[in-house]
Amino acid sequence: MVYYMNELPDDIIFNIKDFLFEMCLECNNKCYIDNLRKNITTTYYKDIFNDDFPFPRIHKTYKFICNRCISNLKKQLIIPI
What we know:
By secondary structure, the protein is α+β, with helices and mostly antiparallel strands. The chain contains 3 helices and 5 strands, in the order H-H-E-E-E-E-H-E. The protein has helices spanning 2-7, 10-20, 67-75, and strands spanning 21-23, 30-32, 36-44, 59-66, 78-80. Strand 1 (21-23) and strand 2 (30-32) form a beta hairpin. The chain is elongated and about 60 Å long.
């Protein structure tokens, strides 16, 4: 596969890369599309009186966010919904 990629013109390779990589809107790194989640809304989660509801309701929406950023946000009590 790599052999065939070396024979392709650069403009075609750049077009292929546009479909395979996207920018994570949390860490601003280019990530492979399989390592991203699309159209995710996160909310700050605080456990109050053992009820499972978000408080306060702070939402943020991402077009693309990488799995590593989701893991980091979960450590900060921010979960994807």
